[in-house]
Design a protein that fits this description.
The protein is α+β, with helices and mostly antiparallel strands. The protein folds into two domains: 11-74 and 107-176 and 287-438, FAD/NAD(P)-binding domain, CATH 3.50.50; 177-283, D-Amino Acid Oxidase, Chain A, domain 2. It is built from 14 helices and 20 strands. An eight-stranded mixed beta sheet has the order 6-5-14-15-16-13-18-17. Strand 5 and strand 6 form a beta hairpin. The protein binds flavin-adenine dinucleotide. Flavin-adenine dinucleotide (FAD) binds next to helix 1, strand 3, strand 13 and helix 10. This is FAD/NAD(P)-binding domain-containing protein. Residues 11-329 form the FAD-binding domain.
Length: 447
């Protein structure tokens, strides 16, 4: 096996230019590493609909100096309003906290900010580069066009349903399973909504808020993007797509029929959606491992989730930022001779394992939290729904605990407010300290 040439920066290869892959690229490049991103698409198109950037992701973006660019098109959310499906009655309103910024943005704008920053930092983005296999011990990546590339580390950020990196790493077919829900996603313009000529719709459009309607088996999420000139609507319902489908064009009539009888403001908005995509929502049993040799997974490739906490991309952002930071610190140790070239492969695999260890618990909690929210949001009318609505009506979203994760503020603080990069830094520090103590070399702190 080849040893690292310490005069050259670490070569990081990232499979997939999604949100997680690009944040990993940016974080690694800021550490002075050489980064190449392999993206199977022939071009990066401005696709997708709205996406929320919750405070945990916003904190990471701030640490990468990306918030000013994000703010150019994003809207900072002042509150999250939760409404009853039938009549739009407000069940609760959760104000955004000053120390925890929450944004909504068009995914294409978010992606563009990440892409521009990656390029500015010298990251090489190779399009039309579909990865078909990986050699885990030596970091060789095989592309569909039969070319090969070699990295010191390879990161699999190739998404959820058909992640090649995940399947190769696990050595078997590994598709996430269907959750039983699907999402319709659509965006439309302010002009389209103004044409409805309805003061309640206009009121809704003015608010820098995320509005969620809860109903039996279904819920809907609405918020502004692109400085309030466009709006995003996500409608969630039981899945009726064939197995194996991920995204297809939606049937507008079916979508309208599904939400017939809901709050008239919502049904009016639904009536002006010109086209919509249907997404099958998937998740995965916890994977036994996310790492092998010089390779690690991130984002949906290892922990796809129901989008019921707006955390899928946010967790991928956390993964990517931490991986970049860890690889930078590891490279320093190799460069300054604290780790000998002979132990290079072993130290890479140990640092990737450390990443997996600290991320698994948090991302598993997130997947479970989203499942718990599904129950909470979709309660059928009856005693439990009435109890939920009563608890929401008196909730202040500050310090209360609750049997529902959604209303449990300890759970929420852990999810949204823990400084994960700093915590990860401490974990790396203590890993290195225990390593040097084992070797009798004293306690050398690096972070
Ligand atoms: C309805 C809905 C609403 C959502 N809302 C939110 C939200 O509000 N907030 C939030 O944080 N998350 C949200 N999410 C989740 C979020 O979209 C995903 O979790 C996130 O995009 C995952 O990022 P990723 O980088 O892991 O993968 P992806 O963004 O899927 O990127 C994977 C990339 O890898 C490329 N690729 C795949 N295979 C290969 C290959 N073999 N070789 C090379 N390249 C390859 C793909 O082309 C793609 O560019 C939502 C999801 C849905 C469905």
């Amino acid at each position: 096996m080849g040893e690292l040439n310490t005069s050259k920066p670490f070569q990081v290869i990232i499979v997939g230019a999604g949100i997680g892959g690009l944040v990993c690229a940016i974080s690694s490049a800021r550490e002075g590493l050489a980064v190449k991103v392999l993206e199977r698409a022939p071009e990066i198109l401005p696709i997708g609909a709205g996406i929320q950037i919750p405070p945990n992701a916003a904190r990471i973006l701030a640490s990468l100096d990306l918030l000013p660019k994000i703010r150019e098109t994003a809207i900072e959310v002042q509150k999250l309003n939760f409404r009853r499906y039938e009549d739009g009655r407000l069940l609760a309103s959760r104000k955004s906290r000053s120390h925890a910024q929450w944004f909504v943005i068009h995914r294409a704008d978010y992606h563009q900010v990440l892409l521009d920053e990656a390029k500015r930092l010298g990251v090489e983005i190779q399009l039309n580069a579909s990865v078909k296999d990986i050699s885990f011990e030596d970091g060789v990546v095989y592309l569909e066009d039969d070319t090969t590339l070699k990295g010191d580390v390879v990161i699999g950020g190739d998404g959820s349903l058909w992640s090649t990196t995940r399947e190769k790493l696990l050595g078997k077919d590994s598709q996430p399973f269907q959750t039983g829900d699907l999402a319709y996603r659509g965006t439309f313009t302010l002009e389209q909504l103004e044409a409805l000529n309805d003061p309640r719709v206009e009121e809704l459009c003015k608010e820098p808020a995320v509005t969620v309607w809860f109903g039996p088996e279904k819920h809907c999420v609405f918020y502004p993007v692109r400085g309030g000139t466009q709006f995003n609507l996500v409608l969630l319902r039981p899945d009726n797509l064939p197995q194996g489908t991920r995204t297809v064009k939606g049937d507008i009539e079916e979508m309208r029929y599904t939400f017939h009888g809901w709050d008239s403001v919502l049904t009016k908005i639904i009536s002006c959606i010109p086209s919509v995509l249907r997404w099958k929502l998937c998740h995965h049993d916890e994977l036994d491992t996310w790492t092998k040799g010089r390779v690690a997974l991130l984002g949906d490739a290892c922990h796809p989730t129901l989008p019921y906490q707006a955390q899928g991309a946010a967790m991928a952002v956390e993964d990517g930022a931490i991986l970049g930071r860890f690889l930078g610190k590891l490279f320093l140790l190799l460069q300054n001779g604290s780790i000998s070239p002979a132990s290079e492969a072993e130290s890479i695999s140990r640092v990737l394992k450390l990443y997996e260890t600290i991320r698994k618990h948090r991302t598993t909690q997130n997947v479970q939290g989203a499942i718990s929210n599904r129950h909470f949001y979709h309660l059928p009318d009856g005693p439990e729904q009435q109890k939920r609505d009563e608890e929401m009506a008196k909730h202040s979203f500050t310090t209360e605990t609750s049997e529902y994760k959604f209303l449990d503020m300890k759970y929420n603080a852990d999810l949204l407010e823990v400084p994960v990069l700093r915590e990860a830094g401490k974990a790396f520090d203590s890993w290195w300290s225990s390593h040097t103590e084992d070797k009798g070399e004293g306690n050398r702190s690096l972070m």
